[in-house]
Each structure stands twice: as C-alpha cells, then as structure tokens.
Write a structure and sequence with these properties.
With 410 residues, the protein is of the alpha/beta class. It is built from 15 helices and 13 strands.
Amino acid sequence: MKPANPRILTINGGSSSIKFALFDAGDSLRRILEGAIDRIGLPEAALRVKGLNEADNFSRLVTAPDHTAAVGALMDWIEERNGREVLTAVGHRVVHGGPKYNEPQRITAEMVEELHRLSPFDPEHLPEEILLTEAFHRRFPNLPQVACFDTAFHHDLPRVARLLPIPRRYEAQGVRRYGFHGLSYVFLLGELARLAGTEAAQGRVILAHLGNGASLAAVHRGKPVDTSMSFTPTAGVPMSTRSGDLDPGLVWYLARSEKMNAKQFNEMVNFQSGLLGVSETSSDMRDLLDRETQDVRAAEAVALFCYQVKKWIGAFAAALGGLDTLVFAGGIGENAPPVRARICAGLGFLGIELEEKRNAANEGVISAAASRVAVRVIHTDEEWMIANTVCRVLGLTIGKENDHESKKSV
C-alpha cells in the first residue's frame, strides 16, 4: 500500500560534500527542499538548505570531520524537522556499479558487500557512498534504500566501444569502458522526447553534460553508442580539476623524472589538472571567462576545454553516421553561452549553426532556423531522476500529474 504522504530523500555524495533533496511523491513528484553539506573534513563545514517553506531556508555550521559525521548531522536535522516518519525511502546516486549492477535496486547487505569489493574500481567515490548507506541503515534500519547506478545507462554499450586496447585478461577482471553521468543522460533523453517528440529522442543525438565533471554520450534509438568517460570518470574531456584523456606514457615519464608514484599521479590527474591545472588560478569556468582577456593562462584553459569538447562532438558524429540533435546540459553547458558558441564554431560541416541571440539568452533551442542539427539547452536534474527511480523500484505510483514541470528546483 502506498504511504499517505510519501517522502523520498535523494543523496548524492561527493568527495567533500553531500547533496540532497526531498521530494513529495504524492499526486506528483514535487521537490520540497534541497541542500548540501559542504567542506566535509574542514572546520567550516556547513549545512545549507533551500525549501518551499521559509523555515527551511538556512545555513549553519556543522561538525563534519568525515562523511559518517556529515550524514549524521543531516539525519539529526531531518528528525528535528519532522520526525522519523517523514521518510518513505532514500535513493542514493552510486557512481560505479561495476560489471554486475546494470539496474537500480534496493540496497541489501549482500549488495553492500559487493560494493566493498568494487571499491578499487572507484576509490574516489564508492567508499564514501557505502558509508552513507550504512549510516542510514544504522539510524533507520527499516527504511528502504535504493541504489541508482550512474554507470547503468552505458552498461550495454556496443562491444567495440566497451573494449579497452589492453591485454584481454583484464576484461575478465571487469576492466572496460563504463561511462558515467548515466542518470543525467536518462533524464535528458526523457526531456528531449517531451520537448521535441519521440522521433527526435530516437534519432542521432549527442548529449554534452558539461559541469565540474564533464562528459559526452552518443545515443541512437535511445541507446548509448559511445561515451567519453571510460573505466573511471577521469577520462574524456578536460574538467574542472580532472585531466581527461592523457598519453599513458606520461605515467612512466613522471615516475622517472619526479619519482611520482601511482597515488600521486592519481591525485594530480583528478584534483590538480583540467581547468585548474592549465589556468593555475581556478577550476571554475565563470572565473576563467572573466579573466581570459587579462590572463593568457585562463584563456588557454577555456580554449582547451572548448577544443576538446568540439573534437568529441566530431568523433561521435562519425560514430553515429551523422547528427540530428546536440544537447548541452550541466553547469557550464546550461549557463555559459560563450563556451557553447566556441564549441559549435566551425561545425557547420556537420549541420550545426547557432543563433547568436538565442544562445546569449540561454533559450531552450539555440540553433539557427537554417541549422540541419537542432541544438538545445536542457536543464538536467539527477535528483529528480533518482527520486523517480526510487518510486519505480518500490512500486510507488505517482499519478498522471507527474509531468516534467514538477522537476523544477525550489
């Protein structure tokens, strides 16, 4: 039986933050509030909440030396707010599902054990994500929890796209291209179908999720054809602090020239590279766009990002045998007209032509009337996707009123 006032909490754990949102899953899937605990591990860790009610809008310091303490502070506030009965279920974004998990499902003790075994696949995310599920289970042992795997969308990539050109024995160990941002891509395909029709969503589509983490996916007939991230989220285009693709020979060079070990190399390519590494000043695209006329390093970081994304679009158009729709999403993709313009410049041979005023205004469709390829800007919403997935897994029917308008943030 469906609860009278179902409440779905979504959890998205990062390396130094926990983002969350609370949804009412009654007649429609409606966001009640959203927030985050930032700067985990630092003295100035803070809980920030933004909601429909004035009482839910606040920011306060919390003691959060690690993720377990941080989620404890979050659960304390949830109980303080409405009592334990407020939650119907919790949905977790789990970045890596490895070779086994290709569908969202309820979290069990057996799954947690398997995720522990998978931790070497993604040491930057999985250990903290496991801690979060365990913390909720200790506080709310009867509360259903659902794992939503970010790799699931890409699970059935064509074999030629999955294979990595290394000795075959590693494939048996699960080493392959996995791809990430799957929750975002599923959401964007649904929005594309709603906005442009089923035919457009079934066509040759490139989805560009460009944010702090950035990746692209080639999709045809609603199925993934290829994606830029690979075995880990470090691969593909340059990101805020991640390098994207590099020459593997760099590992041996730095080991010889700087005595750099594997852990130090991993730290460099994940947290010291990308926009931050090239600019030497900031990992934030907004800062770099503001400084690029005065700082050549900022200008080069922006240029490199745009150039690499452009290259991936060209490659994926080749893999798709042409292109019908290009979608920009994510913090950069949705809010940086100059970046979109530079990425699309020179792609007229693929049929991509932007309309300058539409692009500058961040309109939903930014392609020119004569453009053979429709270029769209679509706001992605991974939290809504998680909540919707939880409802589906638990059999919570959310009614005909559950249209995409209810996905808008508070």
